[in-house]
Amino acid sequence: MVLLRYRLDELFDVVRPFRPLKLIRPLLPRPRSDLRSLSRGVRLRLAFAELGPIFVKAGQVLSTRRDLVPDDIANELALLQDQVPPFDGQLAQAQIESELKAPVSELFASFDLKPLASASIAQVHAVTLLDGEEAVVKVLRPGIEKQINRDLGLLHSLGEIAQRWLPNSDKIRPLEVVQEIEKMLENELDLQREAASASLLRRNFESGVDLYVPRIYWDLTGTRVMTQERVRGISSDDILAIDAAGVDRKQLAAKGVRVFYEQVFRDNFFHADAHPGNIWVDPTRIEEPRFIALDFGIMGSLPEKDQYWLAQNFIAMFERDYARIAHLHVASGWMPASIRLDELEAAVRTVCEPYFTRPLSQISIAELVVKMFQVARRFQLTLQPQLILLQKTLLNIEGVGRILDPEIDIWAVAHPVLKQILKDRYNPARTLKVVRRQLPEWLHTAPQMPALVREWLQQGVNGSAELAAAQLLVKQQQELARRQQRLLAGSLLGFCLLITAALLFIAGHTSDWPWAFGLAGLISFAWGWPRPRGPGQG
Angle 146-147-151 (CA atoms, 0-180°, nearest 5)? Predict the structure, then answer.
């Protein structure tokens, strides 16, 4: 009914089983006048918001899949925010006491029953610790697991329909998108995992100069409850408040870009939900501005191999080396080696070249990466979830940077940062350090090497024997098939010839033809009959 109310039935016209629904469309009630003029993206966003928190999450994930979703829909779905009424503070208190095995009065000096914020998965309450420190406690919604499992079942059913009937479903892979949503929700339901992510990010930016991460109170944290330091800041899209605080927005925007590249390529651990609501500005830092990070439910990292190839692709893109971009995409294994590099290079040039006609301050690396992935899909590129998260984060970070400083030259900020990170990461000193770290492990396994080599050689010998045995078996099976075919052919021919001889004899033919056909039939039977094989004949 929600889909019909927002007239989203037109989105299913391409799905074969739903095409007959077009016949009854004239019988459906006309949409409300306030909805009639809205675009399909706006109507889809409103429908997802009405369907509830899980569909809001699904919409947020789909907004990142610009390789699959049209831009007009992705842009609208990116606006989806959790707008869920808070649940009773008494229920939150009961959940905390159940998880931490103690009354709230023994855990905290004070506990505010009125939540500070409420979202689809959890809500946050202000508390005072026993030592007087201010903190916040995040609590999962009661019964949220059951609701998520129910709605995920519906999403799986929709994914299966799309997988079976949607055109090009092998490229879109709807069930993989649903699994992506499921994994994201599973991570967000484990607050201890989120707390561990916050601790690691805090350790990576321990100085707190560019990015501050609230500390976690582990003795007050569990799977369904997380307690962390309370921080105060300004949402990074609240320009009036940032200006009123006297913070240098240009310096802050450049720091945001640097922090992103440090998270991805220096630490290989990045905040993957970096929208303005989760990235605040510290109003107390005027001379040396910094960001404050919140909500660590969605974090990303890349396999070291992908991290290296991605960094090299960024450098090649900065330097407009299209041939190297094409080579890197194949060398990384993201595309099959059968791809023609000259065609891929031409496609990359077609996408990139128009951007370089603009002033550098107007070039969006995020937009360029999205279009590169869209073009690369034509050459059988398969995007991994980690790369999709990275793409989403890059869009968010650039968005924040442009809000803070519309004239920021992201190209000029990112290029030297990335080159320096790669220089520090891939150099002889670091290689020697890695070798030194792994040396004890190599020394530990060294005494086992002769036995392992002998076993490997023995497996090679056994493998050769097994191959010879397999080849002999195939040869024997081929010979058996030939003998069976000859037996069948001889039997059929002999049977036909004997029947012909019998018919001629019954018809009263006195010539030699009946005897000739009969003799030929016996010879055919003898030809087809299996003969014993001599030694060495198989």
Answer: 120
The β-bridge relationship of strands 279-281 and 234-235 is antiparallel
C-alpha 392/C-alpha 387 separation (Å) is 9
Dist CA 139 CA 96 (whole Å): 7
Query: What are the residues whose beta carbons fall under 8 Å from the beta carbon of 11, sequence distance 6 or more?
Result: 40, 44
**What span, in angstroms and rounded, lies between the C-alpha atoms of 216 and 233?**
18
pLDDT tens digits, residue range 399-413?
888 889 888 888 788
Tell whether the model's pLDDT for residue 128 goes beyond 90. yes
Burial of 210 (0-12, 13-18, 19+ CB in 10 A): middle
SS3 529: coil
Q: Which residues contact 73 (CB under 8 A, 6 or more apart)?
A: 40, 41, 44, 62
What's the pLDDT tens digit per position in 295-307? 998 888 888 888 8
Catalytic residue ranges: 273
- Tokens 């200006």 locate to 243
Give, for 118, the enclosing helix (H) or strand (E): strand 117-118
Residue 119 CB coordination number (10 Å): 21
- Count CA atoms closer than 13 A to 130's CA, side-chain side: 8
* Among the ranges given (44-48, 141-145, 191-195, 397-401), the one the predictor scored with the smallest mean pLDDT: 44-48
Ramachandran region of residue 232, left (φ > 0), alpha (ψ -120 to 50) or beta?
beta
> How many CB atoms within 10 Å of residue 191?
24
Length of the chain: 538
Could you tell me if residue 7 is left (phi over 0), alpha (psi between -120 and 50 degrees) or otherwise beta? left
Owner of token pair 């991570």: 187
Residue labelled with tokens 């019964």: 143
Taken in order 103, 105, 106, 112, the sign of the CA dihedral is: positive
Q: Alpha-carbon distance 183 to 181, whole Å?
A: 6
Write down the pTM of the prediction.
0.72
